[in-house]
Amino acid sequence: xxxxxxxxxxxxxxxxxxxxxWVMVHRTEVIKNNLNPVWRPFKISLNSLCYSDMDxxxxxxxxxxxxxxxxxLIGSFQTTMSKLKEASxxxxxxxxxxxxxxxxxxxxxxxxxxxxxxxxxxxxECTFLDYIMGGCQLNFTVGIDFTGSNGDPRSLDSLHYxxxxxxxxxxxxxxxxxLVIQDYDTDKMFPAFGFGAQIPPSFQVSHEFPLxxxxxxxxxxxxQGIVDAYRACLPQVRLYGPTNFxxxxxxxxxxxxxxxxxxxxSQYFILLIITDxxxxxxxxxxxxxxxxxxxxxxxxxxxxxxxxxxxxxxxDGDDGVLRSSSGEPAVRDIVQFVPFRKxxxxxxxxxxxxxxxxxxxxxxxxxxxxKLQPPKNPAS
Length: 380
Known about the structure:
By secondary structure, this protein is an alpha/beta fold. The protein has helices at residues 46-50, 81-84, 100-105, 128-133, 169-181, 222-233, 246-259, 282-292, 310-315, 348-355, 359-369, and strands at 9-16, 22-27, 58-64, 72-79, 93-96, 114-117, 137-145, 189-195, 197-199, 204-206, 209-210, 219-221, 238-239, 267-275, 297-303, 335-339. α5 (169-181) crosses α10. The protein is elongated. The mean pLDDT is 91. Belongs to the copine family.
């Protein structure tokens, strides 16, 4: 305590290593000028706190903070996770904070205060692999931009132009990302759609047409099936416009919404949109993404060509929370944007790694937020 009798207390939690030394694993915030502090709840992994051993000693030290760094020990106590776990709001667990130096000096010394633990619970948090190994299905859908801004596919400078060896930026992006995703999908059947083209037989503009022109069964067999469907579709459609993302986002969101009826983490949906980046329905797309952020769904946008991708960067909420046109914020960031040209001279794996960098965390965030466990729980 300082001269005026008030202290600036904080707590340190320590675990004991195999050689008997104590290692600090957590420090609380300092509560200024207070003899009855209430610290904020905190989360720590069981392994970090006590090597996941419920009966291993945990040492808690209470210090009086000093700005010059010479923090004074108020007192300490030892406990175990088994004991801490007994705490509840109706029945807190209390520990006497003992300062050994003071106890040895003073015969009447009782303690230097009481630390009261109001709540302690163990939550099983699954990793991305826990969900996958526990039976969660990743459902992969591809959306391909067939709008006029890509250029005439017969022209050398078109993004849809197939080189003599049969590739273009769209196909390279499909291969790179699809080969990684398909390993997590047991049936390897992927719905693949185009948008922004006039399609046969009436050549009406469509913003979500199956690449295989079969609305009742838009599935392609593996990544090769998507590639084959794309190559067959390209000469049959007329590139047109406008570039609307929202119909295909809402299409996948309807399936994701149906999956929320299940009580386990059984399904997660990933929409890969490959586009030249010129977007027409930005407001509707923002609203579609904000609605989808409440669902088991992620959106990956791969930008091909050299266009201005500012709108795509804007949809990727890394620089702040994306809001719908009415101002509603996304509950989580579900969009990852990657400009393809950045990886043009890199190995295929580099693009796939970057494109999928955020997906595992997005999957974990969604299922842990809604406290959903895998169908077969590997953590048990």
